[in-house]
């Protein structure tokens, strides 16, 4: 992001208002409700950042590129949208690789993952094989910076200690811990993520029946929502995310969640009796009394068959990272369900990106 960006509160509020108007326009055919708006901090909100390393006269610099232009680097020493911890680590890490050719040789990318709880994981990516020499050079740097450090090259990953950080988020007064593995999806804006979790917790309300969750990731929403229902069946297709979610269930001593590695499309086929899956062999689907389905799909939204599956539920709690596909899905559901609550979560300030949440209830 260019350093000339206007990070003033006036500029931020103007952009947030435009996003609110855009979301209202998309939802207008279905509701007159005004979305609740959850703003972000205008700076230091992003917990993840990825930089290319651009070498000039033997000096490696952090670099980003404008879309469509991979030849003109924007060199930077700091990134105002990144967390304060990332900005603190950037010059220290740069000094470390400049002082050691084993760390800088053919280094082409650096990825930072930080948490609100103060942990950091850094991945250094190389266009060369890595071995014991790299480990010996990296170990004192990890200790000096107080971070987890990983080296990546083609077909190789060297982990010094752990390949994850642990985030801590508070929902309705209870703190939850989340393992966030390297390379797995996590919400980039921790402050807004905490708003999302609390909004979903409140929007669901206390229920006496069960919850089905599709696209559960590392259990970000699953953990707090499990305290609002009798039990949860959650699905996720990514092995890395499933393993993190299982660890998170143990770490938080939550026992009313069954987690299955299935895509939303596969679960739809299973519930419709189209296919049987060995991964569901130990699950008695008939034992569940589903009243609510929670979905947090990718940008493409729900496919038509999954949309028809969620129509069966009295309550649909939908978090969307693409309001256009959200509106398309609501249109498919609008003959049986109506919006009773909606929200805008500004996960990505200084972009046009809109994150939204809606509650749909059977008419």
Automatic annotation (TrEMBL):
Annotated catalytic residues: 321, 355
GO molecular function: rRNA binding; tRNA (uracil(54)-C5)-methyltransferase activity, S-adenosyl methionine-dependent; tRNA binding
Residues given in the record as S-adenosyl-L-methionine binding sites: 187, 215, 220, 236, 296
Catalyzed reactions per annotation: uridine(54) in tRNA + S-adenosyl-L-methionine = 5-methyluridine(54) in tRNA + S-adenosyl-L-homocysteine + H(+); uridine(341) in tmRNA + S-adenosyl-L-methionine = 5-methyluridine(341) in tmRNA + S-adenosyl-L-homocysteine + H(+)
Record carries keyword Lipid biosynthesis: no
Residue runs in coiled coils: none
InterPro entries in the record: MeTrfase_TrmA_AS (IPR030390), MeTrfase_TrmA_CS (IPR030391), SAM-dependent_MTases_sf (IPR029063), TrmA_MeTrfase (IPR011869), U5_MeTrfase_fam (IPR010280)
Enzyme Commission (EC) number: 2.1.1.35
One GO CC term on file: cytosol
CDD domains, alphabetized: AdoMet_MTases
GO biological processes: tRNA methylation
Keyword S-adenosyl-L-methionine carried by entry: yes
Keywords, alphabetical: Methyltransferase, S-adenosyl-L-methionine, Transferase, tRNA processing
Annotated HAMAP family: RNA_methyltr_TrmA
Function description: Dual-specificity methyltransferase that catalyzes the formation of 5-methyluridine at position 54 (m5U54) in all tRNAs, and that of position 341 (m5U341) in tmRNA (transfer-mRNA).
Family recorded in the similarity comment: Belongs to the class I-like SAM-binding methyltransferase superfamily. RNA M5U methyltransferase family. TrmA subfamily.
Annotated protein name in UniProt: tRNA/tmRNA (uracil-C(5))-methyltransferase
Top-level taxonomy: Bacteria, Pseudomonadati, Pseudomonadota, Gammaproteobacteria, Pseudomonadales
């Amino acid at each position: 992001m260019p350093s000339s960006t206007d990070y003033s509160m006036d500029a931020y509020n103007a952009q947030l208002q435009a996003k609110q108007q855009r979301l209202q326009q998309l939802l207008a055919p279905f509701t007159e409700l005004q979305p609740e708006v959850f703003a972000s901090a205008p700076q230091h909100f992003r917990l993840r950042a990825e930089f290319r390393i651009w070498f000039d006269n033997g000096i490696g610099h952090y670099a980003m590129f404008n879309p469509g232009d991979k030849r003109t680097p924007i060199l930077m020493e700091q990134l105002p949208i990144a967390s304060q911890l990332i900005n603190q680590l950037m010059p220290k890490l740069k000094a470390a690789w400049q002082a050691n050719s084993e760390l800088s040789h053919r280094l082409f990318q650096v990825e930072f993952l930080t948490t609100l709880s103060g942990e950091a994981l850094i991945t250094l990516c190389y266009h060369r094989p890595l071995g014991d020499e790299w480990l010996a050079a990296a170990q004192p740097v990890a200790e000096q910076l107080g971070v987890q450090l990983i080296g990546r090259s083609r077909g190789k990953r060297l982990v010094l200690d752990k390949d994850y950080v642990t985030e801590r988020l508070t929902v309705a007064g209870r703190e939850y811990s989340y393992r966030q593995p390297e390379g797995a999806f996590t919400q980039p804006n921790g402050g807004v993520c905490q708003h999302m979790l609390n909004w979903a917790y409140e929007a669901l309300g206390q229920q006496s029946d069960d919850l089905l969750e599709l696209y559960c990731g590392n259990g970000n929403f699953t953990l707090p929502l499990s305290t609002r229902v009798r039990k949860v069946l959650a699905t996720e297709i990514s092995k890395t995310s499933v393993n993190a979610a299982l660890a998170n269930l143990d770490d938080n001593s939550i026992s009313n969640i069954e987690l299955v590695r299935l895509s939303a499309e596969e679960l739809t086929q299973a519930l419709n009796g189209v296919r049987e899956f060995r991964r569901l062999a130990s699950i008695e689907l008939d034992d569940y009394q589903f009243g609510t389905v929670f979905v947090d799909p990718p940008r493409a939204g729900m496919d038509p068959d999954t949309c028809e599956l969620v129509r069966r539920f009295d309550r649909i709690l939908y978090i969307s990272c693409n309001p256009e596909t959200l509106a398309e899905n609501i249109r498919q559901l609008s003959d049986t369900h109506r919006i009773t609550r909606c929200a805008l979560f500004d996960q990505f300030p200084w972009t046009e990106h809109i994150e939204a949440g809606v509650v749909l209830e059977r008419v």
